[in-house]
Amino acid sequence: MRDTRPPLWAGVVAGAAAVAFTTLAIYPLREIVPAVSTGVIYLLAVLLVASWFGLWVGLGTAVASALAFNWFHIPPTGRFTVSDPQNWVALAVFLVAAAIASTLAEIARARTREAELRRREADLAADLARLLLGGSDMRSALRPAADRLARALALPGATIELGDGDGDGGDADGAIPLLAQGERIGTLRLDAPATDEALGRVVPGLEAILGVALEREALQQDIVETQALRRTDVIKTSLLRAVSHDLRSPLTAIATAGEALTSPNLTDAERAELAAAVTGESQRLSRLVDKLLDLSRLQGGAADPRREWCSVEEVLRVAIDETPHPAGFNVGIDRDLPLVRADAVQLERAFANLLENAARYGGDHPVAVRARVVGHRLLIRIVDRGPGIHGRELERIFEPFHRAPETRNDGHVGSGLGLAVVRGFIEANDGRVWAESLPGQGTTFVVELPVEEVREPVVEGVG
Fold it and tell me: Of 139, 291, 345, 386, whose CB neighbour count within 10 A is largest?
């Protein structure tokens, strides 16, 4: 945004050339019009020089034109004298007209320059706004914004820094404080000095745009925090609803059975049935508490796996033994499955939840359990013959407290926590889990675990 006016010496040369050219051009015209009338041609030269090189060069050209007009074309020629008084008037009028023309040309040039500067300021402001406000990360746009600013100021480089600048004051070492609402929000550092006029045009716009960008960033952060709080509230509400319902059911059953056990009129069979109900509901309550604790550790990042080489077949059989199912389990595991490096306890909890879920919805049909190696992955499939799940629900069923619509009114009791715990433990051990299902045709849960080369000996026994 610097003034592009040519140097003074160029103006002097151009003025002299214009006067010389005009003086020569008038000679042919003297045969047609009176010599005094040809002086107006000099005004064209004065206007051109003043428009391009400024007022003072234009005035100099005007004086030079008057002298040349007097010497070469006003009788007596060859001398700076005027014999006819009318020629004195013509020469004076010419000088005044030339001065006015130079002044008007300078005013027009100044206005044109001002308009050009304002256009460049508008282009710069638009580019800075696009860079600092157009993207999602304002801080990554500081470098390109500083480069654009340096080009506008015709400087080798510039840097925009956020913050209070560690106490930098004034313009020391090219550090220019950037303020917004009376507070320092950053520092503009220039690699070379810039004029006060240029800085006065650029810095206020940069301060305004940077202030808006920082305010927008703060608002976005508030929005993110608000959304996080809302999600937390939703989770808390869902947790309270689920826990209050799922805890109330076994507690109510335990309290009712315990109260009934105090009756002296119970037979031994009735007393045994009530005791079994208390035991069953206590186990159900214990499983719910375990799931809540597991989910809490997963969401809090406190469930880091303790990786050791373990046998998936052994983990599956432990989980099967701990999961009751009247129809039983149909187990098909390939021989010589490789060991996996994972947390056996977490895998057992994940498989137990999948088996419990499959047994709950499998009805009177056995649950199939398959395990085999495919490439460098170990695949475990747990298949039930339950009601199935719609495709739109296959991903959502792994969300905490979510139950597929097909299973909400089927008489089965579930907290919606088991599958969330499954995904958390499997992914913590670098695995994946997903569901495959068609409505009315059962559901298959697939667990995929990485197979690594065993790099340390496995101790089978001692003795």
Answer: 386
